Amino acid sequence: MEQANPLRPDGESKGGVLAHLERLETQVSRSRKQSEELQSVQAQEGALGTKIHKLRRLRDELRAAVRHRRASVKACIANVEPNQTVEINEQEALEEKLGNVKAILQAYHFTGLSGKLTSRGVCVCINTAFEGNLLDSYFVDLVIQKPLRIHHHSVPVFIPLEEIAAKYLQTNIQHFLFSLCEYLNAYSGRKYQADRLQSDFAALLTGPLQRNPLCNLLSFTYKLDPGGQSFPFCARLLYKDLTATLPTDVTVTCQGVEALSTSWEEQRASHETLFCTKPLHQVFASFARKGEKLDMSLVS
Amino acid sequence: MDETVAEFIKRTILKIPMNELTTILKAWDFLSENQLQTVNFRQRKESVVQHLIHLCEEKRASLSDAALLDIIYMQFHQHQKVWDVFQMNKGPGEDVDLFDMKQFKNSFKKILQRALKNVTVSFRETEENAVWIRIAWGTQYTKPNQYKPTYVVYYSQTPYAFMSSSMLRRNTPLLGQALTVASKHHQIVKMDLRSRYLDSLKAIVFKQYNQTFETHNSTTPLQERSLGLDINMDSRIIHENIVEKERVQRITQETFGDYPQPQLEFAQYKLETKFKSGLNGSILAEREEPLRCLIKFSSPHLLEALKSLAPAALFCRIQKLLCYSGSHIQGTQDLSSWQKDLYLLFVPLYPRC
């Protein structure tokens, strides 16, 4: 706004010049501002323009990538079926191998001595057998430390495990295991013979079978012809060797007869030899067979 | 039938609870099936007993039959007695044990009868290769007292025998001697092991307490078995505590295993401790004599109780106490290796000055 001026006549011309100058000043500043604004707008335009270019480029790149992917996926699908079947075959083959290995590990039981690694050592399994019959299994869990020690086991208390361990465990573990196997197999064999005698040939026994836990002393009375006239025999079998399944000492006597006739004496002696050389149940099987032969001869 | 025998049988039958009566009578196998069928077991007990005594009289029961009934009763009620464990040794280089049951029984009876004229000895064999022996003691002038017998359970071809603790302690040496000579051993020693539960004693002494073994046939992997220990899974337990708890679980499992523990009622340790002197020198370290103390753990089921201590993480502190004082501990007897493991893991607290 024009300022009020007290000097009217000069003021008019001064006011006029000053006002004119002011007007010119404001014009200049206005135009400067405008040009500045214009410049900034132009700069912004330029920036936005470059941004647009960048984004467009990016979009084109992504589009190209998507197209490329699609093409390769399509190519893959064509090959996918054969790949899957290859994988399935591999899996089956591995499972079969695993099954085989597991079966082999389980079959090791038939060797008589097998083992499985445990977190602290090894658990040895001793499978006993006699004459091709698989009998009981016994375990010994060993802790592998210095000194080697037995953690726990299922060996019966009357087997001299501690003695064997004292002798061999620290120095020669193979010997320890084989020795233990010997004892356990022999015990199982003796037990098997005694069990078979009691179960299969009870008819030939005239009294109960006397036995002890280790089955190393057996005492029984038997008759060759049950119900017949003959005198019963008394047998006493001693197995002093705990690693053997055949007795070391056999005594056969004839009950209630002072002096035996020669035929009985021969029979008695032959029985003694039989018990010493053949397993108990086989001897009784041969007795039973002879008995059948005798019966047959009587009938015919 | 003798008056005393009749009275003895009557008192034995009266002890038997009604629900076990037929089982025990069948095991006794003295009265026949026919005779037993004539008895009405639904009557009042006194009437049943009267009838049974009458039948026994008919069959002329002897003292040995009565003693056998008593053994069977004891076999069914093993927990009524406290059993001690005795271990026998053979001399060095002795022959293989050819155990003959007949010979053993004869020899055992002869030794006792030679020493004490008045003694009743009865035997009953069981299926687990054990023979139960009942001995009723008398003196030179008095008849055997049938109401205070001693029972011995001997596992043939093993060095172990279990004896019921009896009041008549003076007969124990003779009994030990008879057992040793009859079973062809050299000497007999009483082990520091006592319990009401014969099965648990057997499990400990025969080392049969853990019968689970790893084989390739087993389908359950051991790691997945649950421990059966109840741990309060508090959501506020942070990682470090979980690690510690898992370690405790692992050690407990390794020590105790998964099987049911033998039932022990108490464990007693005699310690002789000499203390090392610390920086200031303590009163205890200056002693010449070691400090002797007796620590006794007792519980209705000691091992299960110790097993459940583990989550409370008490035993770690106990172990720490032990290591800290650095003392020398000397047991007074050779512990079996199993007992030693237990001992090393659960050494009792002892007083610190």
UniProtKB/TrEMBL annotation, chain A:
Keywords linked to the UniProt accession: Centromere, Chromosome, Nucleus
InterPro entries: CENP-O (IPR018464)
GO cellular component annotations of the record: Mis6-Sim4 complex; nuclear body
Membrane in keyword set: no
Keyword Nucleus: yes
Compartments, record wording: Chromosome, Centromere; Nucleus
Record-stated family: Belongs to the CENP-O/MCM21 family.
Protein name: Centromere protein O
Gene name in the database record: CENPO
Automatic annotation (TrEMBL), chain B:
Pfam families: CENP-N
PANTHER family: CENTROMERE PROTEIN N (PTHR46790:SF1)
The keyword DNA-binding is assigned to this record: no
UniProt organism field: Pongo abelii
GO BP: any one term: chromosome segregation
Main location: nucleus
Key word Methyltransferase present: no
InterPro entries assigned: CENP-NAC/CAD_complex, Chl4/mis15/CENP-N
Family: Belongs to the CENP-N/CHL4 family.
Keyword entries, A-Z: Centromere, Chromosome, Nucleus
Gene field: CENPN
UniProt protein name: CENPN isoform 4
